[in-house]
Structure formats: C-alpha cells, structure tokens
UniProtKB/TrEMBL annotation:
Domain of life: Bacteria
Pfam families recorded: adh_short
SUPFAM superfamilies linked: NAD(P)-binding Rossmann-fold domains (SSF51735)
The organism's taxonomic lineage, starting at the top: Bacteria, Pseudomonadati, Pseudomonadota, Gammaproteobacteria, Pseudomonadales
Signal peptide: none
Name recorded for this polypeptide: SDR family NAD(P)-dependent oxidoreductase
Protein family: Belongs to the short-chain dehydrogenases/reductases (SDR) family.
InterPro entries per the UniProt record, alphabetical: NAD(P)-bd_dom_sf (IPR036291), SDR_fam (IPR002347)
Length: 264
C-alpha cells in the first residue's frame, strides 16, 4: 500500500501518536485527512507534512467526532475530495488524571467526566466507523482502532507492588475495553464487505497521555520485563504490519507493551 493514490484518515492526529502515524503515512505515499479538535495542532501538522512531502494532499478538519452531525459532514467532505479512503485510523482519546498527574479513584470520577470519556474514546470510534464505512474502498479499505492494554487489564493502582502500576482510571480502561469489543463485533459484520477491522493496544508510551516524574517512570519500568517504555514509532511499526495484512487478522487486538501484559 505504498502509493500516492492511497488515502488515510487519522483522528486525534494532533497528539503524539497521531502525529507520528500521520507523518509516517505521508512518508509511505498516503494522502491524508487529519482530524482533531485542536486547530493549532492540526495547522502545525499540516504545515510540517506539506513542507516535508509537498506532493501529498493533506486535508485538515477540525471535527467533534462525538457529534453524529459533524462526523456525517466530515465524511461527505472527504468523499468529495478523495472519492474513497483506504484506511481509517481511530486514534483520538483522552485519559483524565488528577492535578498531580496520578490516577483518579473510581469513586471520585465525576459523572459528566465519565460520559465525556466514553463519548470521546468509544462513541467516536462507533460514529467514525458507521459514517465513514461507505467512504472506505470496498475490498481494499481497512479500519485500525487504537485501544489500550488497560482495556484488558482494567485500571491501574498506585503501587508498583501490584500489577498494573498505572495512572489510568476506571473510565479510561472501560472505554478502551469497549473499543476492543467493538473491534470484534465490527470485524464480524464488515467481513461481508471484505473490510478488516483491527485494534492496536499500547501499554505505557513515552510522550503519550501521561506526564510522569522520574520516580513514577522508575517504578513503572520495574513492572515491565524489558524495563522500557514503548515509543510512538513502535505503534507505527505495528500499523505497518496491519497495512499489509488482510482478513486473516480481522478482529484481533495486537498488544504493544514490551511484555508488560502478555495475554491474548
């Protein structure tokens, strides 16, 4: 899939992983639709890609992907511009923390914040898959959802004596569990159209959603067999593998976490 005629849609493109994914796909020859709610981040990414790869088409859309109306409108804009896309990457997500960067206890999660996390991390994936499905090229299109290891293990605890030592809270973990399950459900339904649906579940990623002090990172690394955090580039490497895979892996979640979690 290394051709300038291919097009990818990336949500949450302005974040660390989204930026890495978008830049890498541009390097492979993809035209891009980059979606985020932060216009400044989008503008910077669009300028960067077009400076480095002037032959690429880059469409930047500021979209609230929890809104069906905005997602529908975005799909129309993309269809009119590119006449179909080859890969949809649902990367957008949030993981609220306490003011000191640590995990929010389940009983302290604000009700409205619970709804916001579910809408941003899970509902948005459903809406993008639903309303961009007809934009995907049949027999060629792929969907890749970015989940999380915490969607399998559950939220973390505050001591590295208990696995997993993490600042991810219950609402984040539950939303990512939903992404993993939704991936399976859609994989079964979309197989009739030969559209595979995959998930990538990162563990702790440097430069990701958490801003951690050195003591936290030291304790975290003690739980990880390789004693290393993951990198955005490792997520991209996994994406590369999926871009060359077909229906044989549809519905699967690939865990990328340096052995921190080794379950299926």
């Amino acid at each position: 899939m290394h051709s300038e005629h291919f097009t990818a849609v990336v949500t949450g493109a302005g974040g660390t992983i989204g930026t890495c994914i978008s830049s890498h796909l541009a390097g492979l020859g993809y035209n891009l639709v980059i979606i985020d709610t932060h216009k400044n981040n989008l503008d910077a990414l669009q300028s960067k890609i077009q400076r480095e790869y002037p032959e690429r088409q880059v469409l930047a859309l500021t979209v609230n992907i929890t809104s069906p109306q905005e997602v529908i409108q975005a799909s129309r804009v993309v269809q009119n511009r590119f006449y179909g896309i080859d890969v949809l990457i649902n990367n957008a997500g949030i993981s609220p923390k306490l003011s000191n960067g640590m995990r929010i206890p389940a009983l302290s999660i604000d009700d409205d914040e619970w709804d916001l996390v579910m809408e941003t991390n899970l509902k948005s994936v459903f809406l993008m898959c639903k309303y961009f499905f007809d934009v995907l090229k049949r027999d060629k299109g792929k969907i890749v959802n970015i989940a999380s290891m915490m969607g399998v293990t559950g939220s973390g605890v505050d001591t590295n004596q208990i696995f997993p030592y993490s600042v991810s809270a219950a609402h984040y973990s539950a939303s990512k569990a939903g992404v993993i399950n939704l991936t399976k459900s859609l994989a079964r339904e979309f197989s009739e159209s030969n559209v595979p649906v995959y998930a990538i579940a990162p563990g702790a990623v440097s430069g990701g959603m958490g801003k951690f002090d050195e003591s936290f990172i030291k304790n975290l690394k003690e739980q990880i067999p390789s004693h290393q955090l993951g990198t955005p580039e490792e997520i991209v490497n996994t994406l590369n593998f999926l871009l060359t895979s077909g229906m044989s892996l549809t519905g699967q979640t690939l865990h990328v976490n340096h052995g921190w979690f080794m379950g299926g």
